[in-house]
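does this look right to u?? glycine version
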Amino acid sequence: MTSRRSFIKHSVLSSTLLLPGALQKGLGTIKKLDQQSGRRPLIISTWNHGIAANEKAWEVLHSNGSILDAVEEGVKITEADPDSRSVGLNGHPDREGIVTLDASIMKGNGDCGSVCFVRQIKHPITLARKVMEKTPHVMLAGEGARQFAIAEGMPIEQEELHPDSEEAYQEWLEEKEYRPIINIENHDTIGMVGVDADGTLAGSCTTSGLAYKMHGRVGDSPIIGAGLYVDDEVGAATATGMGETIIKVCGSFLVVELMRQGRSPQEACEEVVDRLIKKNYEDIEDMQAGFIAVNKDGEYGGYAVHPGFNYAVHHEGGNEMEDAKSRFEV
Ligand code: GLY
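got this back:
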């Protein structure tokens, strides 16, 4: 019987071997997209919390907000959600019992901002936007980011764990063992990408990162090109899952580049998941990662390493969850 690992190896090597030819074929050509197959405006975001986030983003977009306003306001819903253990200050803490947050935001013209390892800020996505719009920098970290928030008049929150996070943390302290659990273990970042009626794109990504991570650990979400990438010429992509695996392949940037070379959003996400599996092969059974992408014409796609990943899609026809396909089936 074919073992899971051998199935993985066979699938990944097969697709990887095809890559150079496919890349060459696509070089220099931007696929002429079928306008009928895409819908604009379109907003998509990761996981179930994407429904409420999309709802807000849609409302902003239809109240004369820009697509940038929409992706910021949308994920703020999740950042403030008392039921979220993976985004915002109600999330799980690191192994020292401290919640530290990562976030990034990007426009299709290349402007971008991010914050990482930041404490006591309810809306790190807003802080990331302020970094983009009010500083000459792209990324601020830790205490520097917090000081910038204070200078900008943002409120500083009490450092107190949500009672459910506190209880889980106390349980974790008994063994202090780090065991990622696919689709459950706190890697459910919210990433949102959208395109407006004119084809202008933007994206946002925000998370409290892995539960019980080392103090100071930063994931993919605030790293432009890893957790998020947007280009008005092509499309946008964002990632969720084990950040270390995503960073290794510059995942979101690669999705966008593959779309530039002619792949559909779905094809691009699948190809990057295969690349990610190849680069993280030894540990892949325990590592979930997924991507969602939208192109300039409002076509979209999503794909993950393992089953269980889903994403919310909002267009004129409604706001619905879709289950992502995955490289592994069980
Ligand atoms: N993808 C979120 C993280 O790894 O922190």
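The chain has nine helices and 13 strands. idk if thats expected tbh
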